[in-house]
Amino acid sequence: MTDIINPAAEHQVERMRVLVYNHRSHMGAAAAGQVGQRIRDLQEHFSAPVRMIFAAAPSQQELYEGLLQEQGIDWSRVCAFHMDEYIGLPADAPQRFGNYLQERLFRRVNPGRIELLGRTGNIEEECRRYAALLNEAPIDIVCLGIGENGHIAFNDPPVADFADPYPVKSVLLDEACRQQQVNDGCFASLEEVPAHALTLTVPALMAGRHLFAMVPGKAKHDALQAALYDPVSTACPASILRTHPGITLFTDRDAYGS
């Protein structure tokens, strides 16, 4: 179990609890401690598997490293989903989000059930298949980030819909979103980044009972400020997060500012 790490600052923004840490490593360790405790609490009180949705992004690295150190979690009683996937990349491409999570977390903790997005070639069929899996039971925990353009999952401003009727859909990626993948070192150039992807929709993410958002780094400063303080709108899809009754956002000074 991770030692308690106190934030340098704490804010309440509508329903969102915002914890600011001086260092990114402290942010990740604190987030892992709270996510780990939530998993343990659910496993102590309920016999059903803990159903979790994970983001695949460098912003989540410290969280996942911390979760590897968390004691007392029965990972065999965890059902793991992820929230988005590129369309058109080879199955073994390291940039695929399912492969990213397999390498950094799933193969190391061995969840009892892993449901990867993008396993079938037919896009409409895959959206229906994954939606059915998500709808089998409520989602307990969502671990997510915020993109440089304010996206959550691949719900970029042009395609985000707070009342989307579908749990999973295919989207055309915003150029700012694709450029972030280059900035993060996932691709060498914009041309290499796929233009289309599958994503869980905003309502599917917001349906999770407990949301934990990790938002580190200077590149996220503008998006984070918009998510916290601009009007709630799809101009910054992450702004909807502050209306969720069970969300905690972890950030560092680089992202939040002084």
UniProtKB/TrEMBL annotation:
<dbReference type="Pfam" id="PF01182">
    <property type="entry name" value="Glucosamine_iso"/>
</dbReference>
<keyword id="KW-0119">Carbohydrate metabolism</keyword>
<feature type="domain" description="Glucosamine/galactosamine-6-phosphate isomerase">
    <location>
        <begin position="26"/>
        <end position="153"/>
    </location>
</feature>
<dbReference type="InterPro" id="IPR004547">
    <property type="entry name" value="Glucosamine6P_isomerase"/>
</dbReference>
<protein>
    <submittedName>
        <fullName>Glucosamine-6-phosphate deaminase</fullName>
    </submittedName>
</protein>
<dbReference type="InterPro" id="IPR006148">
    <property type="entry name" value="Glc/Gal-6P_isomerase"/>
</dbReference>
<dbReference type="InterPro" id="IPR037171">
    <property type="entry name" value="NagB/RpiA_transferase-like"/>
</dbReference>
